[in-house]
Design brief:
Length: about 190
Amino acid sequence: MPNHVSLDAAAGLLVRSRRIAVVGVSGAGKSTLSQNIVARLGLRYVSLDRDVRWLPGWEVRPRDAQRRLHDGFVAEENWVIDGTTIGLMDTRLSRADLLIWLRVPRRIALTGVLRRVLSSYGQTRPDMAPGCPEQFPDREFLNWIWTFEKRQCPRLFSAIDQHAPDLPVVTLTSRADAARLLAMLNEESPRR
């Protein structure tokens, strides 16, 4: 069972953490939260979508190349890694100081995806690989979001139990939780 911590405890841990994993369903706000944390703490931002998974034209990078890139980032001393590729969790979780899990209801995730499409359609977002402009979600992507809680959450729990059972995990169930965490982070005095 994961080592769940409260939002208050997470804020104190966050300011002292050098390696932070941010996971959750697409559209939950992982990239936004991650980039805000990076701006406050001065850590390196790694987007699995931009830096590991995708090549231009929405081509998926080969798995062995994804693993090499991912593990190279994980070996560094300071990072916020944004993404939920469970097949790469082993090394990331074992090196992380804190796991932030955005576990929002699917309606919030779907709304987040809709807002993202409306604001960025045809453009490449900063957290996405070059040559991968925002597009309308296809059925497979929408199904990923719709079934995330049932299919992916048990796999994520298993990965945490197997690779980092003592890793502090804070679960954020709303955008308001994420905003509260950032507000508390602003109140803490960063050591960097």
